[in-house]
Structure formats: C-alpha cells, structure tokens
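User: I need a structural model of Putative membrane protein YGL010W from Marinomonas aquiplantarum for a docking pre-check later this week. Nothing fancy, just the predicted structure tokens so I can convert them on my end. Input:
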Amino acid sequence: MKSLLAHLSQYAYYHQDRRNVATHFIGIPMIVLAIAVLLSRPNFSFFDVSFTPALIVVVLSSLFYLSLHLVIGLAMSSLLILSLFIADYLAAQTTVIWLVSGLGLFIVGWIFQFIGHYFEGKKPAFLDDVVGLIIGPLFVFVEFLFVLGIKGEWQKQIEQFCDLKNQENEMTKGL
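Assistant: Understood. Predicted structure tokens for Putative membrane protein YGL010W:
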C-alpha cells in the first residue's frame, strides 16, 4: 500500500497550478457533500440496524484515511461526519430539495474541477488512477494545512517529487 506522501505526491503532480488548487478548494468539498446528500436518502436495514449508502462510504473512506495517517485520518473522518450530518438534513427534505441540492452541488463542483484543470493543462488525476477520487479530499485538507504553515516538510517533499516528475517528462519529450 502506498504511503500518505506517495498518494499526495502523485495527486499533486496533476495540481501544480495555484488556480487549479484554488478551484479544488471549492469543487471537491461540494462533490463530497453532494455524494453524501445523494447517498443519504436510500435506507436499508440489516439485523434491525438502519444504514444508508452514505454511512458506508464515510466509514470505508475514514478507514482508508486512518490507515494512511492517524491524526490526518481523524481530521478527515470528522469532516466526513460533518458532511454526513448536513447530508442527512438535506435528505430529510422534500424530494425536490434533496435532488436539487445533491445534483446541484455535484454538477457545480465538477464544473469547478474542470475549470481548474483547464488552467492546469492536465487531465484530472483520477483518469490515470481511480484512487485519485478518494485522495482529492485528502489533498485539499493537506493543502489547507500548508496554507496554515503546518506540515511544511511534507510540502517540500511533495514539491521535490513534482519537480523530478516534471524533469522526467521534459527528458521524455526530448527523446
């Protein structure tokens, strides 16, 4: 299994333009919330315990994040639980409100993503590795830490990886 820094470095390679990163600060939280909203309405029971697909996605995502890093995983889990509470509220509304909020957040979030990748000039990371879909929210959280001046050593390691990858690509183009 890849380390946290390996995942972040690979994802960061597709996100070096500051405008792209900025659009991800808006788009990714919208998409995460949209998925939670859309998956919070279907309900099923197993041994008299009620579940939603959103709860299952949050639990599995949290386990993945926790396996990468305990403290970051706890922070990500807390944010996912917050999304779940908001999603549960919206899912309890009328069908129109539920669908419009879920689909609206999803569509607008992806518009932000694709605008960012237009600036970047690179395709989204998940097109090369589907794991990028779960790394995206983690990337945004860690980028926020960098903005706050936290985990600067991680930022340097990630930037070094991206510099090396860019150099490799330049050498490959020259061949």
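Before docking, keep this in mind: Residues 4-174 form one domain.
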